[in-house]
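Q: Could you fold this chain for me?
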Amino acid sequence: MLGIILILMKSIVITSGKGGVGKTTVTACLGTALASLGNRVALLDADFGLNNLDVVLGLENRVVYDIADVIENRCRVRQALVEANVRNLYLLPSAHGYLGENVTAQNLRLVLNSLAVTFDYALVDCPAGIEAGFSRAVGACESALVVTTPHISALRDANKVVALLTSYKIKPTLVVNRVRGDLLAEGKIPSMDEIEQILKTRVDGVIPETDGVYNFAAMPKKPFDLLAKRIHLGTGEPLDPAAGYRGFWGALRRRMRREN
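A: Sure. Below is the predicted structure, expressed as structure tokens.
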């Protein structure tokens, strides 16, 4: 019976080639969007070096146990889960100051197996880059989202991650974050089609640049809803951030943005 249940939960590692591209915020926002579709979603913070998923979600003061406590048998997985301020969304926190000595891909997989009894999705926030933390998080999951920005350095690093994921027999898809619609309309940054050609990977989500928005709760909802539908239902297209910057009125908006 448990084997049947395990098939039903989808485990997705959220990774990136470099830090600072918004991977953790994407994890939190995507989890929220999947939960809004009626799924029970668990977010696992597997970034032991720069773990802040609890802070992004505003749950840092409610954490009692963490993933290290689960793996080292100091508590059960359900005791470590923290219910978020969104229905059907839960966090399994990382361990602050923990070096991850006992965290292996096998142990993470055992934790995911425990969650599979209850949850529809598990999103694993992976350390940026391609070091040991990447290997253990990827080795525990069945699919992957690579978060990048449309800048050449980020795309180059994302390309390395895509190649590594292929070696794990995982075919990832992309989330392109912080896309300025005005620059996209003017051809000053690569289009999503060009990014797909460069990385030979499908773009499932496009998140626009949100000037001055650094709060998870204030992030735009629509692009993550579209991403969640692509993942859960296989329908729809990613957001087009350049839509409002085309044509006569769009040209005026681009000019106003440059002047500001």
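A (continued): Residues 54 and 60 are 5 Å apart (CA to CA).
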